[in-house]
Design brief:
Elements lengths: L8 H20 L13 H30 L3 H29 L8 H35 L2 H4 L4 H29 L1
Length: about 190
């Protein structure tokens, strides 16, 4: 019996999503011992939030360009921008999880009212959207990688991709707001 990814996109999406989210929650929850992580200079760890802000902002641009290209039926450039966004997201996540595994969450130093009514809601929506994006991204990616372009038009790739891109964009934008609140304003 031949197993083909194109015939099991939903199942693969579920498995990859569960594994990915388990890894994220393990890192955030402190399950990953810092002793297992590579050692880098403190300056590198301190630079991670700033590098991630650049990655997030760049991802906003690549998402917009990817949407623009597909609206112009430029599939090649659309694919390049969406894969670039995925690479930016993976780099962001690896750096974020590395830093949080070493140092834990960054403390918010601003006023309590801003913390409760601006920072926490922004952070919560950012995280919720990032989590919601994982299965959507795997789904559209697996559809795109397992089919020729002509067949994609017969799948939910376009419809799910629109939702994924919109949620991804908002998540990245809110991540930038969180960065500004933590590292620029306060």
């Amino acid at each position: 019996m031949e197993l083909r990814a194109r015939d099991h996109v939903l199942g693969l999406t579920a498995v990859l999503s569960v594994v990915s989210l388990a890894a994220v929650f393990a890192a955030v929850g402190g399950v990953v011992p810092a002793s297992l992580l590579p050692v880098v200079p403190d300056a590198v760890v301190e630079a991670i939030p700033h590098v991630n802000a650049v990655l997030s902002t760049t991802a906003l641009v690549t998402i917009v360009l990817g949407v623009r290209f597909i609206r112009r039926d430029d599939v090649r450039r659309h694919r390049a921008m969406m894969l670039a966004t995925l690479a930016l997201f993976v780099a962001f996540l690896v750096l974020y999880l590395y830093r949080i595994s070493l140092e834990g969450a960054t403390e918010f130093l601003g006023p309590e009212a801003v913390y409760q009514f601006v920072y926490l809601p922004t952070l919560a929506v950012h995280v919720a959207l990032a989590i919601a994006c994982i299965p959507l991204l795997y789904y559209v990616l697996l559809l795109a990688l397992s089919r020729p372009v002509a067949e994609l038009y017969e799948t939910p790739h376009r419809r799910v991709g629109r939702v994924a891109a919109a949620l991804w964009f908002v998540s990245f934008a809110l991540g930038d707001v969180v960065y500004v609140l933590l590292y620029v304003v306060y």
